[in-house]
Write a structure and sequence with these properties.
EC number: 2.7.7.13
InterPro entries: GMPP_N, Man1P_GuaTrfase/Man6P_Isoase, Man6P_isomerase-2_C, ManC/GMP-like_b-helix, Mannose-6P_isomerase_type2, NTP_transferase_dom, Nucleotide-diphossugar_trans, RmlC-like_jellyroll
Largest sheet: 6 strands, antiparallel
Keywords: GTP-binding, Isomerase, Nucleotide-binding, Nucleotidyltransferase, Transferase
Family: Belongs to the mannose-6-phosphate isomerase type 2 family.
Strand content: 25-35%
Catalytic activity: alpha-D-mannose 1-phosphate + GTP + H(+) = GDP-alpha-D-mannose + diphosphate
Number of strands: 28
CATH architecture of the largest domain: Alpha-Beta Complex
Helix content: 10-25%
Structural class: alpha+beta
Oligomer: single chain
Shape: globular
Strand order of the largest sheet: 18-19-20-27-22-25
Distance between the termini: 35 Å
Number of helices: 11
Length: about 475
């Protein structure tokens, strides 16, 4: 499935409208654990197609009348996001780095302020990086209606036609049609995420839509509404933008200023307070992919209602979602189950209790388990490391370094390392000596020696690292310098 679409014909869009896609990529997607974790959240995974959810979202904004996208994200994900955008052919994207998480209102305020520096009349199309949309033709028409109303000073939400009594979404009550804006309505009221009984009532009224969190408004409208309804958010974000720095392709918001912004969503800060809220009712095949049950719901299924991904074998099983990112996984005699297998964790739950996965992650965090937030594979700007085996006083890792990249010059006080090259060529600096290590060759780095690893070749360098010593924590690294790309 592809989320890319051709925009509505230019004649249906206001001539002066420049649409800037603003993609929010700050969540961790804990309900999709163990695949989605804080170190590598769901928007960076290919969950609904062969492209990642971030790539699918960005590709929706490619077409006539659209500016390059702006992505607001956690600074720890910056290199992953930049690489995924490049891989999708997205050029000239502006990547704004949040030094700390402060919910959606400060993130959107930063985007509006940055766009307004050159074009306050530009329309911001704000969307999460991790939602799926099946009907891209309908999206084009809905977006055209919303952009027109945004030009009249409206903050236009996309309300999704509900298909079930959903308790995981907020709701929008549709009001009267807006004069002169065909297909756009006033917002009569907002409803918080309801319990099951209330969700059934809202579904039966026929007037309530799911709040998708996607909306459009001009940069000038957003800034003025923030000034009226959330002045503390705007003031802190103005300082963060005003004292920003630049680093390669990234815009770094000032940490102290941004940290002072209230932690509040754009819904609470502006949408539920403004007198200019409007809604476009839409049937887009939309899902926030907020749980494994939601992912099962939108995925292609076999004759027994199963979704099977990876090395999976099913027997007498129906209406299940089974995924293995590693070892062979066999399931027999289950119905309405979720089974997810990664290299370091296994999740088994009933589909109708998939929302409770977040509670499991909270318990893992409380227990100090690294599996709650990080995978065995840890990505760096130069490549990645992957834990293979860990025991008393030793551990084994796979290290992959991109062509032309290098690691910092460093030493360790508590461990020695032995590197075996299995693919490519390594240039190793050891106590000032440079050593070229080829495939099937190795080099020993004694405890305390100053060393560096780099890849001078044209193919990825892969090596196996064996660490041994009294302490093997990642904080036993003294970096003597850093490559520019770090």
């Amino acid at each position: 499935m592809s989320d890319r679409f051709d925009p509505a014909p230019a004649a249906t869009q206001p001539a002066a409208s420049i649409v800037v896609p603003v993609i929010l990529s700050g969540g961790s997607g804990s309900r999709l654990w163990p695949v989605s974790r804080a170190s590598f959240p769901k928007q960076l995974w290919p969950l609904v197609s062969d492209r990642t959810m971030l790539q699918e979202t960005a590709l929706r904004g490619v077409g006539a009348g659209f500016a390059p996208p702006m992505v607001v994200c956690n600074h720890e994900h910056r290199f992953l996001i930049a690489e995924q955008l490049r891989a999708a052919g997205i050029e000239e994207a502006r990547i704004v780095l949040e030094p700390v998480g402060r919910n959606s209102a400060p993130a959107i305020a930063a985007a509006a302020l940055l766009v307004a520096e050159t074009n306050p009349g530009a329309v911001l199309w704000v969307m999460a990086a991790d939602a799926a949309i099946a009907r891209t033709d309908a999206l084009a028409q809905s977006l055209s209606l919303a952009v027109s109303a945004a030009g009249d000073g409206k903050l236009v939400l996309f309300g999704m036609k509900p298909t079930r009594p959903e308790t995981g979404y907020g709701y929008i009550e549709v009001g009267a049609p807006l004069p002169g804006q065909d297909g756009v309505h006033a917002v009569a009221a907002f409803a918080e995420k309801p319990n099951d009984a209330r969700a059934r009532e809202l579904l039966q009224t026929g007037r309530h839509l799911w709040n998708s969190g996607m909306f459009v408004a001009t940069a000038a409208t957003l800034i003025e509404e923030l000034r009226l309804h959330a002045p503390e958010v705007l003031a802190a974000t103005e300082r963060a933008v005003g004292h920003r720095g630049t680093d390669l392709d990234f815009i770094r918001l000032d940490p102290a200023s941004f940290a002072a912004a209230p932690d509040i969503s754009i819904d609470y800060a502006v949408a539920e307070r403004t007198a200019h809220a409007a809604v476009v009712p839409a049937d887009l095949g939309w899902s926030d992919v907020g749980s494994w049950d939601a992912l099962w719901d939108i995925s292609a299924k076999d004759a027994d209602g199963n979704v099977a991904i990876g090395d999976v074998f099913l027997e007498h099983t129906s209406d299940c979602y089974v995924r293995s990112d590693g070892i062979v996984t066999a399931v027999t005699g289950l119905q309405d189950a979720i089974v997810v297998v990664t290299d370091d964790a296994v999740l088994v739950t009933h589909r109708h209790q998939a929302q409770d996965v977040k509670k499991v992650v909270e318990r893992l965090r409380a227990a100090g388990r690294h599996e709650a937030v990080a995978h065995n594979r840890s990505y760096r700007p130069w490549g990645f490391t992957e834990g293979l085996i860990e025991g008393e006083r030793f551990q084994v890792k796979r290290i992959v370094v991109k062509p032309g990249e290098r690691l910092s010059l460093q030493r360790h006080f508590h461990r020695a390392e032995h590197w075996v090259v299995v693919a490519g060529v390594a240039l190793v600096t050891r106590e000032g000596e440079q050593i070229l290590v080829r495939e099937n060759e190795s080099v020993y780095l004694p405890l305390g020696c100053v060393h560096r690893l780099e890849n001078p070749g044209r193919i990825p360098l892969t090596l196996i690292e064996v660490q041994s010593g009294s302490y093997l924590g990642e904080d036993d690294i003294v970096r003597l310098d850093e490559p520019a790309s770090n």
